[in-house]
Amino acid sequence: MTVVVLGGHDRFESPLRSFGRERGIKVKFISKPSQNLEDAITQADLIIVVPSLVSHEMVRLAKKIGCHKCIFCKQKGLCEIKRQIELYLEKKGRS
Predict the structure, then answer these.
(1) For a disulfide at 12, which of 8, 35, 80, 82, Cβ 3.0-4.6 Å?
(2) Which of 5, 17, 83, 8 minimizes the C-alpha distance to 44?
(3) pLDDT at residue 34 in the model
(4) How far is it, in rounded angstroms, from Cα 85 to Cα 89?
């Protein structure tokens, strides 16, 4: 399973990768537009968007390509991003 986190502070990258390894998932952290952004969004199982810490262009792209798998995280802390991933994993485990 792959989770893409769009937006956030660069210092979130390392803790999120460790968090993902502990849970057996791959976490891709993207804070700036890049060439492989579209591929990352397309291949993701879950996209967490932090709208206050990401460009409008990236938000539009996430909505366009992966609207059915986007979670918009209005709080911008690391704990909230982790909580959203945990909630998704719990929900998926029940399905």
Answers:
(1) 8
(2) 5
(3) 85
(4) 6
Alpha helices in 44-77 (DSSP H): 56-66
Q: Which residues pair with 30 in a beta bridge?
A: 6
By residue range, what is the domain housing residue 49? 2-94
Neighbours of 80 (CB within 10 A): 15
User: CA-CA distance, 53 to 71, in Å (whole number)?
Assistant: 14
What single-letter amino acid sits at 12? F
Predicted local confidence at residue 74, as pLDDT:
87
Q: Which CATH number characterizes residue 60's domain?
A: 3.40.50.2300
Name the DSSP class of 55: -
Looking at the 3D structure of the chain, how many domains does it have? 1
Q: Per-residue confidence of the chain (95 residues) as pLDDT tens digits?
A: 999 999 989 999 999 999 999 999 999 999 888 888 899 999 999 999 998 889 999 999 999 987 889 999 988 899 999 999 999 999 987 65
